[in-house]
């Protein structure tokens, strides 16, 4: 819908952020999404065939989802309609659908772009279905959240999910060059500071351009030229942190912390911990994730890892911030330098699959208690060997269900304490084989 402001031609002369002024005017100008817009990309093929279908754009902020939707409408001659699920309700949707139906009767289609589509509830998402099916609208939904978890299966069955990638260094450099060409001047940054700016953007093109605009503003206000890394950090700190605790920034940084710990890099681990704390992440959330790292990536290679992680959580509860953050740092270092093993994680996953696939198999009767006469008559507890009465406190009996082959889920590594566990299990395996041969019927 055109506003009076736009109809009067005032919109063009109104001040606009640099990021808005730099929006691509063609699909070929979009950077970082060649897998979708390149010659073999699905969107390029849709446009070439003239058969645009409903899609969901899934990806982090600042990767071009809105821009691509608008340009798709232009190149396919569809009316572009934009809604935000944050600000729109059922009444807004009804008006859009009615207008789209009227437009269709006049021979023109409607591309309906819905930003943050995951914010719509189930019934609101269901309301799109009949209009998608009869072609009243081509739906282009945009979300930063995993569609598998946030969108109805009925909607997903009628739309293709296309993943937008975070912009890499090459893409971000191209955006900076475009901004400098538009402004007719270079950014007043050293080479080192320019690299720092790219890193701070964290793959978000809009954030990159916004920071660049702040840099030019600072230079115009008499800031030191060119800016060094320290001056850039001070400038960016005056902006809202590039970190959304409920969106991709949250998951990307915790993923970086987790993988740095798993990769036994204490320095990188501390860096990502500091980034999360500086971004305002809940320290107790970090503590919970440290506990998970202790059990998932270290396990019995160092049983004290779980003790350290839990102790850090308790210490933070007791001390609060900022003193308690040192406890989180200590636990992070401990986990990073600890020997690693995911044997317990893998074993439990395999055991879970076996439990699901095996059905309701009963335990073997010899390991069942027999509190009643009937149960004794049925053989419950018969021939049970009390392990403490056996040599090496090991009976070697079968504890798996009757009819199920013995399984091997847990395979300890040769690292840390698990090396001792492995020796123990190898000895028990040998005893089990020896005892089975001894009791094998002739």
Task: Describe it.
It is a single chain. With 442 residues, the chain is mainly alpha-helical. Strand 2 (79-84), helix 6 and strand 3 (110-115) form a beta-alpha-beta unit. Helix 11 crosses helix 13 and helix 15 (248-262) packs antiparallel against helix 16 (266-278). Helix content is 52%, strand content 6%. The protein has a 5-stranded parallel beta sheet, sandwiched between helices. The protein has 22 helices and 5 strands. The protein starts with a helix and ends with a helix. The chain is extended.
Structure at a glance:
With 442 residues, the protein is mainly α. The chain has 22 helices and 5 strands. The model has no long low-confidence stretch (mean pLDDT 87).
Q: How widely separated are the two ends?
A: 90 Å
Please give the largest β-sheet: 5 strands, parallel
The strand line-up of the biggest sheet is 2-3-4-1-5
Total beta strand runs: 5
Q: In terms of structural class, how would the helical and strand content be classed?
A: mainly alpha
Individual helix count: 22
What is the overall silhouette? extended
Give the fraction of residues assigned to helices: 40-55%
Approximate strand percentage: 5-15%
Mean pLDDT rating = 87
What is the H/E string?
HHHHEHEHEHHEHHEHHHHHHHHHHHH
| Uncertain ranges | none
Q: Report Rg.
A: 30 Å
